[in-house]
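Hey everyone, long-time lurker, first post.

I ran two proteins through the pipeline my lab uses and got sequence/structure pairs for each. Pasting them in order. The first:
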Amino acid sequence: MTTPKAGAEELVGTIDIGTNSVLLLLARRTVSGLVPEYEAATITRLGEGVDRKRELSAAACERTLECLAAYAKELRARDVRRVDVVGTSAMRDARGGEQFRARAAEILGVEPRVIGGEEEARLTFKGGLSGLNLPPTSEVVVFDIGGGSTEFIRGSASGAVTQAISLDIGSVRLTERCVQEDPVSVADLARLESTIAETLTNNPVKAGGDVRVVGVAGTVTTLLAIANNIDPYEAKLVHGAELSLESAQRVFELLKKTPLDERCRLPGLSPKRADVIVAGALLCARVLESLGATTMLVSDRGVRWGLADELSQR
């Protein structure tokens, strides 16, 4: 068993199995807070076809299990004994999750927990705000655009949540529902706009005034990376950076007219995210507009950080 570093607690590991990507964090709690030692992000598209079929496909499961096997090697190599694994939108919505979770448990030694939208929102809020160093009394709205759902959480930067909701709208779900042509057609865009507008009317979380808006997860971090030509991706250049509504809209205008094969080569954009980024970018812009925000802070953190924070304090 590895010996914890002086002044540091035991290493903990958390995995967030999302609709589009699987995220791993290995971190320790020190006197200065939670410190990452290793992070990994892999796009496996577990939620492929879930919006239409309501079941996990065999191919998507195999891609995701292969990713989990690689993560398990990291956990064993670093002798990580305390691990928590959660699944979100795709695993909430789809049949076939029991078999997938059983196989994942064999690989990881711990079975993934399927968390509800409210818990996902709470963990997103806690994790997304970590390391941003906002004044504790600041009012904050955090939004997390995932592949299958988008969470909105309002509260104080100290961690107290006053409102939270999870809406069934995300980059993968929108793409599968609305996009039929490449580049996106006028009809595709009309379907995207209509679906987004209809869903966002159900969001009771509002910002405005002095409320700080924070965007979390891959769609938002990708837009910032494209806007600032960050390639290869570096979390330290992204976490805590600002992205304006104007910049997000400008990136969307570029993406919507660029064919997929060309999008795959854009600096700052992972080729595996290129097919769903147009829908995600439009959703991000419309979210900011609906919140009355002209800019946001971008967070490279989220559920896995919220999990690690709680796991390290148990």
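...and the second, right after it:
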Amino acid sequence: MKLLLSNDDGVNAPGIRELYKELSGDFTTTMIAPLEERSTTGHSLSLDKPLRLERLEDNIYGCSGFPADCVLVGIGHLLKDARPDVVISGINRGANLGQDLYYSGTIAAAREAAFHNIPSLAVSLVLESISHPHHYKTAATFIKWCLELEMHRYCPSMTLININVPNRELSEIKGCKLTEIGFRSYSEEVHARLDARGREYFWIAGIYEGFMDNSASDCHAVNEGYISITPHALIDRCNKDYTSLMNLVGKLNAKFAR
């Protein structure tokens, strides 16, 4: 199986490095990720400037553009003669739950792959505090299980799979659930300040206030200690029959029971 990895935290971020370490021994793995952090850039593309691609190590490249650019450079140039079977974006530092997926560069990389009929997974580590230890190994191991069970074959075309993993040791994860997109609430604070020359500037300062009560949502599953697996259809007329994916979730949960 040929894999293309990307992210929005940057090519040297610990999440994507842990994912590459976990997967490259068993799969043909190439990493193309932004040279600098591109978090919350959404589905941006560099249409008005050239892109640079730097080879940093064997099979690891940094791209000057956005996450979606990285995927396009991969499938349209670097890997055009060896098209990836799966694109995986992450492991993101922080959650991509609820409507956050519309802001996320991590999701954008997976979405770009889905637009080109390449199965794609986005994976994020849900952090309660940035100061806590980051259990990227848990998320990387789970993604390896997903690939071993060929999760990508059970998702309809034009659909990406968004995976959110609680920041816990693998032994502390309760299992996984197939979920739907939830909704997270944020305050509407915008802080106005003055710079050294007396000119006004602003910081968007919204604070997370909790999620909508929905027991079927990604937010609820993660809050209860489960890994959330959320199919995200990109067009309304997608075949949204997730029966096969639900059966696969049962096989994944059997791994937690060992």
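Reply from user beta_strand_b:
Welcome! Quick read of the second one: The chain has one domain: 2-183+215-256. The domain at 2-183+215-256 is CATH 3.40.1210.10 (Stationary-phase Survival Protein Sure Homolog; Chain: A,).
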